[in-house]
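Weekly sync notes, structure subgroup
Attendees: PM, AL, DS (notes)

Item 1: joint prediction request from the bench team. They want all two components modeled as one assembly rather than separately. Inputs as received:
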Amino acid sequence: GNSVTQMEGPVTLSEEAFLTINCTYTATGYPSLFWYVQYPGEGLQLLLKATKADDKGSNKGFEATYRKETTSFHLEKGSVQVSDSAVYFCALSDRGSGTYKYIFGTGTRLKVLA
Amino acid sequence: GAGVSQSPSNKVTEKGKDVELRCDPISGHTALYWYRQSLGQGLEFLIYFQGNSAPDKSGLPSDRFSAERTGGSVSTLTIQRTQQEDSAVYLCASSLQGAGNEKLFFGSGTQLSVL
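Output from the run, pasted for the record:
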């Protein structure tokens, strides 16, 4: 079945450091890909998405490019802030029997130090 | 409502008791999803509703788990004869149409603790 694999955390960075969180996927067909973020004490919210190969999703300085050839959707940010400390989840849409569900990775905790 | 609402926010129960968890999705959203979030396990898919029907129940861990949705709106997840391994945060999400490229709107979850 379809699946998502994320790098294990926690990831600890200093403020203004470059961030990469790796995400690879296994899927039949052409799923849409997503990054969700869960800030401390808050619910999950969509950070960005890409719906087809070579699309780049971006939001709040974060970017991810849908790479079909490497089945990857790595999350990057050029300069992280303390406020970016959160858990990040990679996800894909899984079509079965004409309907969709969303498969999530295990999440990567990011801690940014001042 | 303004967002996805879940109740209760916290539930402590004794092993062997039944529990009901409620989800009230965003008005007009036809798709509704239940997930379970355990420490270190990420989000585990449980069940998906399109309107009142559940085309995908593949994630329900056992026959102790069931869910229903009525009026295309509120959904209830029921766990019978709870076990300690059922302890987790149960999350509900909704989306407008259930298409594969949509944003999911999540509730704040129900923290279930089985003693």
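Discussion: The CA atoms of residues 15 and 82 of chain B lie 5 Å apart.
Action: AL to compare against the crosslinking data before next sync.
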